[in-house]
Amino acid sequence: MSAPGHALLMVSGVLKIGGTLLCALLLAKLGWDMASGRQVEIPPVLLIAISATLTAQLAAWAGWRYATRRETGDRGA
Question: pLDDT tens digit string along 9-22?
Fold first, then answer.
């Protein structure tokens, strides 16, 4: 695998972790609001951060697939 392939794979993994942490933060916020008897509110900034992180993760994955694609021509037996 090439250097760009390794870098994109690492970025994709970091973004997966970031997206997971943001989703956990969202669930913790919802749980905290429910436990305290307040109206459940989802901050728009958190929704934007989650969607941006997931979009960046998909772009990094697509870039990794493009950077590590293989030629399918006949190479002989």
Answer: 888 888 889 999 99
